[in-house]
Amino acid sequence: MRISTGPLASPEIAYEIARATAIHDCPDIPYQSQKNFLALFDNPPPGYTYERYLGYIDDQPVGYLELTFPQLDNLSNVEVDLLVLPGHRRHGVGRALHALAVERARANDRRHLQAATVDRHPDGAAFAEAMGAKAGLAETRSRLDLTTLDEAKLAELRAEADKRSEGYRLRRWIGVAPDDIIDDLAYLEARLNVDAPTGDINWEPEKLDADRMRKGEEAREKRGRRSYQSGALIGDKMVAFTWLVVDLDRPSHVWQNTTLVDPDHRGHRLGLLVKLDNLDHIREQRPAAEAIDTFNATENAFMLDINLAMGFRPVDAWIEWQQDL
Ligand SMILES: CC(C)(COP(=O)(O)OP(=O)(O)OC[C@H]1O[C@@H](n2cnc3c(N)ncnc32)[C@H](O)[C@@H]1OP(=O)(O)O)[C@@H](O)C(=O)NCCC(=O)NCCS
Q1: Is the CB of 84 under 6 A from ligand 1?
Q2: Is the CB of residue 115 below 6 angstroms from any atom belonging to ligand 1?
């Protein structure tokens, strides 16, 4: 048995390996279409470059390595997506791709390799530990089942949020944010790595501005995804927001992304308010949606409490790993 690595011969092979691994590791998340997977190659989010490789047993490609290099911030980091087909594990393909990841990280002047594993199968965590990575942050994936929502509870939460947030008003948008709030949006989104727990992972604040936010949404749309957003404003200033993303080829499933309230405006239930408003937004705009999934740092009790109150329930546990070179 000969183990080797090489450049990505064809993106379609990468898709097949990524799809088979994802279905094995997280069968409840509908996997993206080939079209939308391949669209990332030509439409990356602004500020990131990629390198992609295959791992082989003899001449058969069974492993895929995708390295993501932030170029505008987080310049000492590289994100590692390392996947080996379930039927071909424990033959050293992962180890060979990891050695390549370390080599490429060094060649790009990166000092921190970062990757995530899920607890459903022992492989990912056992492998990361064997490669010398350190567990840096525990995360929980939670799901809101849109087919069994507790409408009375949601109405009660909304009444409480409305009462506590007097003076603020809500605003919704889809895709690129309107010009008059896009600077506020960039400021709030960039606070994520400051305000949300990052454990021992070296995540630095992203350098975001209106131009990068705009290009990010345009690239997302070209990847077959659309974001649905809701913000809370006081006067003309947006001080809280949240966003959901739908893969247009997989309309039953929705991802919950950042929710953030400006530190000067906390304590008014704005986080809950924008999330409840955006839940109504997505239900109106995407009636085929059946579930919303979200990741939270397990120690982020405040966000998890909001999610639990809305009806989100934990599905699985994840670890973010970091290996320092
Ligand atoms: C993690 C993954 C890439 C490993 O691929 P692989 O080709 O099986 O890895 P290797 O055969 O090179 O294993 C290298 C070492 O990791 C450890 N390891 C890997 N899987 C393990 C398991 N299930 N139990 C215990 N140790 C394990 C062992 O020490 C192994 O060396 P050994 O076989 O000589 O004992 C693969 O399981 C996978 O694709 N998992 C899902 C995606 C994922 O979690 N990626 C990891 C991101 S860091």
Answers
A1: yes
A2: yes
